[in-house]
Amino acid sequence: QVQLQESGPGLVKPSQTLSLTCTVSGGSISSGGYYWSWIRQHPGKGLEWIGYIYYSGSTYYNPSLKSRVTISVDTSKNQFSLKLSSVTAADTAVYYCARVGGVVAASNWFDPWGQGTLVTVSS
Amino acid sequence: VIWMTQSPSLLSASTGDRVTISCRMSQGISSYLAWYQQKPGKAPELLIYAASTLQSGVPSRFSGSGSGTDFTLTISCLQSEDFATYYCQQYYSFPFTFGPGTKVDIK
Question: For testing the chain B interface, which of A1, A41, A111, A115 should be mutated: the one with the most B CBs within 10 Å?
Answer without folding.
Answer: A111
